[in-house]
Design goal:
20-stranded mixed β-sheet; about 5% helix; Jelly Rolls; mainly beta; single chain
Length: about 300
């Protein structure tokens, strides 16, 4: 029976080599995660990071360590995360000026998250000469500020970045397995649905970053639609209807052991670039839709 299932999965993957379009999910109730007061979210702000940041504790002019700005319920007083009306729609603006995240108050396990984004005009240090960057952090757990930029929770990242939407980054000591080509030398690992699963996450001995399979972003800064499907430790990164990454066995390292990480909060990053989000919706899942099972 296991052999038949494995063969069926391989045939399904092979049929997708030249077509990466994701099939739509069956209609079911969705939760809208945007309301006029951002009541379903809280804000954590860390630092206005500067050029040449190296991961160490930021200090003031006298060399004294600076504390992060901290946690705020709903709308934050620094206006990093604000709501606007654009074309009759409620839009979340992320200024990017201060590193941090809008964090869901609720934890989620099995779901289909959908949202749309487009870039603003502004960038801030340390990204003035770099690509605009943000991201969706999922299965977020524990305290804020655990990773390199001292800004986010232990989590998995669905990157949103110019030319790189759908990439994977580990946050803190997270790890996961991704269908990807094995990296070699200075080359990045690159996702591909025809490949075996590659362990990602430096604590697991793999890369901390894996590039998406293809660039599915729209030109001319149109609104892009991204979808994140999570079910029992498996996940799919989907950009404008195209599956760009297949992941499974979400976990984190604790005392040298792999610990499952299948649920957690959702974070939207503020990462030195202005970005707009709208139509943020979450659909709970009782099972992984059949049309996606073959990816795993």
């Amino acid at each position: 029976m296991k052999l038949k299932l494995r063969l069926s999965g391989l045939l399904f993957v092979t049929s997708l080599v030249t077509a990466f379009v994701a099939l739509p999910l069956a209609a079911s109730p969705q939760l809208s995660l945007l309301d006029p007061t951002l009541s379903q979210w809280e804000t954590y702000l860390s630092y206005r990071h500067q050029e040449q940041y190296n991961g160490s504790q930021p200090t003031d002019a006298a060399g004294k360590p600076l504390a992060p700005l901290g946690l705020f319920p709903g709308l934050d007083p620094h206006a990093v995360f604000t709501l606007q009306q654009q074309g009759g729609e409620t839009v979340l603006r992320v200024s990017g000026e201060i590193y941090g995240a809008l964090t869901s108050k609720q934890s989620f396990r099995n779901y289909h998250l959908t949202l749309q984004y487009r870039w603003g005009e502004k960038k801030w240090p340390p990204r003035l000469q770099k690509l605009k960057d943000s991201g969706i952090l999922y299965h977020a757990n524990g305290p804020h500020g655990q990773e390199y930029f001292r800004s986010w929770m232990l989590s998995q990242e669905f990157q949103i970045m110019q030319g790189h939407t759908g990439d994977y980054w580990q946050q803190a000591n997270s790890a996961i397995d991704i269908r990807a080509f094995q990296p070699e030398g200075e080359m990045n690992a690159v996702a591909d649905i025809t490949q075996p699963f590659l362990a990602a996450g430096r604590a697991s001995g793999g890369p901390g970053f894996v590039m998406r399979q293809l660039n599915a972003e729209k030109p001319d800064n149109q609104w892009n639609t991204v979808e994140l499907i999570c079910f029992e430790g498996q996940s799919l990164h989907i950009v404008n209807g195209q599956v760009v990454m297949v992941l499974k066995n979400s976990r984190y390292q604790q005392d040298g052991r792999d610990m499952p990480m299948w649920e957690g909060k959702i974070q939207l990053q503020s990462e030195a670039a202005e970005v707009f989000y709208k139509n943020i919706r979450l659909q709970p899942l009782a099972q992984l839709p059949a049309q996606y099972a073959g990816y795993f």
